[in-house]
User: What shape does this take?
Amino acid sequence: MTTLLRVEGATRRFGGVHALRDVGLDVREGETHAVIGPNGAGKSTLFKLIGGQLAATSGTITYAGRRIDRLPPHRRARQGIAIAFQDAPVFRGMTVAENAMVGAHAVTSAGPLSAILRLPRHVKDEAFIRTTAAAALRRVALDDWADRPAEDLPLGLQRALQIARALCGRPRLLLLDEPASGLRGPERSALAELIEDLRGEGMSILLVEHDVAFVARLADRVTVLDLGRVIATGSYQSVRTDPAVITAYLGGHG
Assistant: This one.
């Protein structure tokens, strides 16, 4: 299986504190790779290094064979990396469709002058954005909600909307930041089914998550962080029995 994303020797310091130290990780084409670990393990920092919201102190990040660690987030988005952050809000006062359309702007190139003058490039981009958003909402079963205020969505459907917004960028790699956080059982199950479907269609997914049962259901491989270091990588069944993982994360419960 071809490697799509590779992180090598990633280190991030905040002053004298290491949030990450020499972290290595790879995501293969068409797999779901989960990152787990206790609070303060460095999961969010790693996620932001990959997305471009933070810069690494040292190390490299390669995507589709090209280094991207010096690229800003919007350039990474155009290359096919999309992010659904746990705390990304819905835009109140906008419809569900308009919220989804925000994600498509990341991969269009017409500027504000083009929009003001209604130049052909803007008209073409506008049609692309609307079509892409409608397809993404159908993909996550939110098309019936398209014209309703986004703030009316229950939490589980807000998470689906965040994924739809990310899908509007037509990514090859989807980064999901604790998507199951705060969800009830049926909402969590519906979200897991959506992620399974996306993976089945060939999407590569990097999942940062606290919910171990959610990870066990979805992940092809798991990387475990503790105190900014990788302490185990492998199938869920293999890492759950690793003594270091049991001590650091699972509290001795396996």
Summary: The chain has ten helices and ten strands. The longest helix spans residues 120-139.
